[in-house]
Write a structure and sequence with these properties.
By secondary structure, the chain is of the alpha/beta class. It has two domains: 22-34 and 130-309, Rossmann fold, CATH 3.40.50; 44-124, no CATH class. It has helices at residues 2-12, 44-55, 70-78, 86-97, 99-105, 111-124, 134-145, 161-171, 200-209, 219-224, 289-294, 298-309, and strands at residues 22-28, 57-58, 68-69, 150-156, 181-184, 187-190, 213-216, 233-237, 244-250, 263-267, 273-274, 284-286. The strands form three sheets. Strands 6-5-7-4-1-9-12 form a seven-stranded mixed beta sheet, with helices on one face. It has a three-stranded mixed beta sheet with strand order 8-10-11, covered by helices on one side. Strand 5 and strand 6 form a beta hairpin. Helix 2 runs antiparallel to helix 6. The longest helix is centred in the middle third of the chain and has 14 residues, at 111-124.
Length: 310
């Protein structure tokens, strides 16, 4: 009798199927997926120098009281002043572009280590006109095997969107929309509408439902406001939408405490700015391009860590 009751009850209990979240994957292009930057005229050599200059901390000279990255040293000590000032920017760029040569000539204790990484990165690149880091492709394969549905959004201040889309389509089955999309002051301009989309909820739903797209962000607006995140790349999220996870990857992302940042997290329900610290390293990531290039599991590891924390 007990056996019979158990069988009957088993038919009465409904099967629960747990569906995975829909992923909205937003990737910056320059120095996140590719190693060049047409907008700022950075060669691969320049990009590597800039990334390494952000990585290595020291006192650099007798006036420095606590360790700084070489990039911060240039900005705060060697050439202080407004970030958007073009004259100062040229002076800073020249110094940072020569970082590897500088540490080598100064016989810095880490000069050999820095030069080895520099050489490893250069060796990774091939003759392709646009070389997208392999960790990006491996990440897409991973989430597809895991059963996630997703849409991919490429974002850039620069001029490389078309060539990167073409490179990705060449390597995968993905196909991007040909619609031209632009963000300006938090409003989304599309080729299909005369007026921009201003409502945050409508923008959020547009981004998660329009397949694979690319968006041109406004570099001048960001620069003119001293790289204030409020004038950079808007990152729309909806904390109430449990079926969707938005992820944003960008090499220019600074620590939440920084007065300069590449973007702002915005609540799609009410337009309020959300604290970056609440999303940092869980849904919003500062990308280390060298790691993304040398470690094929880089984006997979970021994703897996975020799923543990969410």
């Amino acid at each position: 009798m007990k056996f019979y009751i158990t069988i009957c009850l088993s038919f009465l209990i409904p099967m629960v199927v747990f569906s995975k979240e829909h992923l909205v994957l937003q990737f910056d292009v320059n120095q996140t997926l590719i190693g060049t930057d047409k907008a700022s005229n950075k060669s691969l050599d320049d990009v590597i120098n800039h990334i390494l200059a952000k990585r290595y901390y020291d006192y650099w000279d007798e006036t420095v009281t606590e360790p700084l990255s070489y990039a911060d040293y240039v900005y705060e000590v060697k050439v202080p002043g407004k970030r958007g000032d073009n004259f100062l920017k040229r002076k800073r760029t020249k110094l940072i572009n020569n970082f590897v040569d500088y540490v080598t000539e100064a016989n810095h204790p880490k000069a050999e280590q820095i030069k080895n990484i520099y050489d490893q990165v250069l060796a990774k690149f091939n003759d392709e006109s646009v070389y997208v880091v392999p960790s990006f492709y491996k990440f897409l394969e991973f989430i597809e095997k895991e059963g996630y549905q997703y849409n991919l959004i490429l974002r850039s201040f620069g001029r490389d969107l078309a060539s990167v889309k073409q490179a990705i389509e060449k390597q995968t089955d993905l196909r991007f929309s040909q619609e031209r999309l632009n963000f300006f002051r938090g409003e989304l301009f599309t080729t299909d509408q005369i007026e921009p989309i201003k409502d945050e909820t409508i923008i959020y739903n547009f981004l998660k439902s329009h397949g694979h797209i690319s968006i041109q962000d406004n570099w001048k607006e960001w620069q003119d406001h001293n790289q204030d995140g409020a004038f950079g790349k808007p990152i729309f999220v909806d904390p109430a939408d449990k079926g969707t996870l938005v992820f944003f990857f960008d090499d220019h992302l600074e620590k939440p405490s920084s007065p300069h940042n590449v973007g702002t997290v915005i609540n799609a329900q009410n337009g309020q700015v959300l604290p970056l610290v609440s999303y940092f390293n869980t849904q919003v990531f500062a990308v280390d391009f060298i790691e993304a290039l040398l470690n094929e599991d880089y984006f997979i590891e970021l994703f897996q860590k975020s799923k543990i924390l969410l």
